[in-house]
Amino acid sequence: xxxxxxxxxxxxxxxxxxxxxxxxxxxxxxxxxxxxxxxxxxxxxxxxxxxxxxxxxxxxxxxxxxxxxxxxxxxxxxxxxxxxxxxxxxxxxxxxxxxxxxxxxxxxxxxxxxxxxxxxxxxxxxxxxxxxxxxxxxxxxxxxxxxxxxxxxxxxxxxxxxxxxxxxxxxxxxxxxxxxxxxxxxxxxxxxxxxxxxxxxxxxxxxxxxxxxxxxxxxxxxxxxxxxxxxxxxxxxxxxxxxxxxxxxxxxxxxxxxxxxxxxxxxxxxxxxxxxxxxxx
Length: 281
Hints:
By secondary structure, this protein is an alpha/beta fold. About 45% of the residues lie in helices and about 20% in strands. The protein has helices at about 5-20, 25-30, 50-60, 90-120, 140-145, 165-170, 175-185, 200-205, 220-230, 245-250, 260-265; strands at about 35-40, 45, 65-70, 75, 80-90, 125-130, 160-165, 190-195, 210-215, 235-240, 255-260, 270-280.
């Protein structure tokens, strides 16, 4: 995930937090003052974003030595150390908050994803994310979703066709929207259609949709729709699915359940940096 876009996000975050310098740390610690630090987990979690956090520290000062003590995707117990650091004390403290912000957010998403993946284990249903991501953070948050054991839906509007209710309303009919997209899309592109009612499910099947998204249906309605589709299209369920009802929707015939909460409702994981004076030079 260490792409130019990630570099840009780190630069923006550091400019936001330390663009005017760290007046407190620079006042207390001379340039040669060095310390060691450990980042550890304050809760059980799935760790994610270690490389990003490491890059924050070295971006502030290349003299900081970073040693990972875990790998992204590891299930980490409360109290376990995940990153060891050593370098100029002022630089460590200047980078601390920005590095933790990345690490806590991405670990929160990964931890959330792991809960959802574990909840449907053995059903054959895949849990995928949505585009309900933090602006600018989509690639990182979708990486965190994968790290936690779930999968990604499309990352942008240009990846595949997804005909939603507003497309249908503006086009005049579901069938017309499918026909227009089929004519314009690349020959390998799949056509996905959102359906809210039994009538729309039937129309999507007749129109030749490759994927039918059952939107905001009850588990009973999903089971009925699966029977109507009868294997003619991939079945995705979305809308109204909560963690507590997840297994109710993971019924035979459902291939994918998309969950916006993987990203938009993930709580930042609790990690902290503990600093110990090391030595002066």
